[in-house]
Amino acid sequence: MRFLKIVIALLPVLPMTAAQAWMLSRPKKSTKPTKTTISPSVVYSFAEASGWPFEPVKSPVKQAKLSVEIHPSASKMNETCSQCLMTDGWVPDARHGSVLQCSCRTWYGWYHTAYFLLSKKVGNDNGRLVWNSSDYFWTCDNQEIVENHILRATCARSDGARPVTTLDLDNYIQADRDGQLQVRWGWA
């Protein structure tokens, strides 16, 4: 019993949060049961004190419409990926050297190996590499990645010549927030 008296005596000394102090300072509502009262217990909340559920005060400032514009260089492959090379990779239907493999950084700072099947998106247009075509690997040789984002290959022309041609993959491929390689928006 003596312990209980000490604890009760210390209660006003213990630190209180502002919410606890506010709730203790409020006058108690009547606990007499009425026709609409289900329980004699009363719940106090900050919502009651602030006037809720009344209409919120409207700001005189007009809200501006926000437009979200993705900066074209925000997630370029060259800025978030390194050690890019052409490989067989782990992609189904991949022909030798037709897969772009990079070590890409996630938004959380981790690196992992990402793959992209280029033979479904890159083609040979008379000795020139082009995007949104396919099967350039049948008429191109010596595929390699230079400067971490440029695909360089030797591709056949209709006259039999085989010039060296390049395609900047930064314009078409990006790394998403999980570090996966994907087609940039608008180039599907």
TrEMBL record:
Domain Cyanovirin-N per the UniProt entry, residue ranges: 91-182
Leader sequence segment: 1-19
SUPFAM superfamilies, per the entry: Cyanovirin-N
Superkingdom as given in the UniProt entry: Eukaryota
Keywords for this protein: Signal
TM ranges: none
Protein name per Swiss-Prot or TrEMBL: Cyanovirin-N domain-containing protein
Keyword Nucleotide-binding (UniProt): no
Alphabetical list of InterPro entries matching this protein: Cyanovirin-N (IPR011058), Cyanovirin-N_sf (IPR036673)
